[in-house]
Amino acid sequence: MDQTLPHSRSFSSPLHAILLAFPVALYPAALVTDITYLNTAVIQWTNFSSWLIAGADLFAGIVLAWAVLSLFFGRARHMRRRGIVYLVVVAVMFLAGVLNAFQHARDGWHSVGTLGLVLSILCTLLAFFAAFIAYGDANIRGDRT
Amino acid sequence: MNRVAVLASVFTLAACQSQSDPDLDQTGAQPDLPEQRDTLLPAMEIPTPAGWDGELPTVPEGFTITAIAEDLKIPRQMLLLPNGDILVAEGSGGNAPAVRPKDVIAGLIKSRGKSSVEGGDRITLLRDEDGDGQTDLQTTFIDGLDAPYGLAFVDGTLYVANQDNLVSFEYTDGATSIEGPGTELTKLPAVINHHWTKAMTASPDGSMLYVGIGSNSNVGERGMDVEEDRAVVWEIDRETGASRIFASGLRNPTALSFNPWTEQLWAVVNERDELGPQLVPDYLTSVREGAFYGWPYSYFGQNIDPRIRPQRPDLVAQAIVPDYALGSHVAALGLDFSSEGGLGGPFAEGAFVGQHGSWNRSDPSGYKVVFVPFRNGRPSGEPVDLATGFLKDGHARGRPVGVLFDEPRRALLIADDVSNTVWRISRQDGPNASEEQ
């Protein structure tokens, strides 16, 4: 396989991978706590969601900045198309996440609602998508992703 | 990047929806209640403090206003003692922890509209020795309190409602200070203390004390477990300290006073936020024994608030419509009645209401003292401005809190917790104390 090539480098550096791990873990966790809140109306679950989303947004913002810089100065400049797709995915994830933070700042039952649930699902899917791009094999260019 | 455009338009939409409709009449017995607008970003306008620079609040023609106490430490409510001395409770309470990221951010934003002075946790005495309307003695009367707010005086005993307990002090006529911690009559609900002010008044016969205890949230977003004994008025036996819930569903009853014509308990109540710039009107109401006033399940009767789950149709069905709306987000914090002819003219019979002013609308409301005319012990017309000019060029020079009608001297006192002043309004031609005594 490709990883046996002598100059193989992964798409993301280890530090970048660690930063991306936070949205990948926190957005799905917020989705789970949202669903639990909708099922129970126990307020603490939406409080959890608020903090999980805030934490995910913080790291998503850093990852977004990294994705931009990487395109010009980092590893993504050698994998341009993949880098651009990654940037778009991370950007949409971040914007949806910030919107979701505002949504979760509403009080009580309105803190989740249809919009909150949809945004949590969207952020979860985009985080997984970003992870597939970032953590996938590096040297296969232009396919699928 | 058209997703960015979508996002931008969502926020623009939120901003458009948060405009007020000036044609809505939001005062009186039947206020106009628009549709709920729980926008993503609530409308906010926080007028930051500014100095008076020698200017004064505006009062109607024929009246004069002066500052009778300055350099206070967050004055809130006041009390008139039998010898004419005035007590001013000073302090700032609340220790609600931030439960969500929003609490951290909202706290920072709202603090911009407040005085930077730290609450005094004390009561200051103001004495006018020669009856010229000026303060001759301003001194600390009781120190070492914990965010005192409500004050009452019955039968030689002073009652002080701290944010966590009700304390009594024996008073000797003419005293200018009281030492010691006083005697605790009862604890007051103090867990979280999101709304910490404990308003208080005594029944006309002096047997009971009534204490207003605000909710621990805007609309139950900290869970209903922490709302036990919250958003209620307690009735407390003055002899034993035994308490019971007198009325409930009153989100934040910030001032209590007995109506002198009917001898009923009345209150001003601050209603909920984040349903739009014109919801929900704060109100002035008689407080009926055993009644439920809606919070958090509904407002102004049966208008359901969808933010609280599970809903309680059984309670909503019982919810009482308050007597008189004061306007949305005006933040009424002061109430006193104009007994025995009041300030005369249009201010003869009715209620004085101090309005601290709004944060949750882009067109600020409140920031003034109004007079609600009464007839036969009931509100009978539109509110009339009595003191305005607290806002200037988008800055708050002052924010009215408690109001006190000084009946013997025919003056209205206003505590202002931004300029840390007590203002005094009287008639230019009216009797002053020296002529009257």
Can you walk me through this structure?
The complex is a heterodimer of chains A (145) and B (437). Chain A has 145 residues and is mainly α. Chain A has one domain. Helices cover 72% and strands 0% of the residues of chain A. Chain A has four helices and no strands. In chain A, helix 1 packs antiparallel against helix 2. Chain A is elongated. The model of chain A is unreliable at 1-6 and 140-145 (pLDDT under 50). With 437 residues, chain B is mostly beta strands. Chain B has a single domain, classed as TolB, C-terminal domain (Neuraminidase), CATH 2.120.10. Chain B is 8% helix and 35% strand. Chain B has four helices and 31 strands. Chain B has helices at residues 2-17, 101-111, 313-318, 433-436; strands at residues 27-28, 48-49, 63-69, 75-80, 86-90, 122-127, 137-142, 150-154, 157-161, 165-170, 183-187, 198-202, 208-213, 232-237, 243-248, 253-258, 265-269, 281-286, 298-299, 303-304, 324-328, 332-337, 350-355, 368-375, 378-379, 384-387, 391-392, 395-396, 400-406, 411-416, 421-427. A five-stranded antiparallel beta sheet of chain B has the order 1-21-18-17-16, with no helix packed on it. In chain B, strand 4 (75-80) and strand 5 form a beta hairpin. Chain B starts with a helix and ends with a helix. The A-B interface holds A 41-44, 47, 50-51, 54, 92, 95, 99, 101-111 and B 3-4, 7, 10, 38, 40-41, 99-102, 217-223, 274, 306-310.
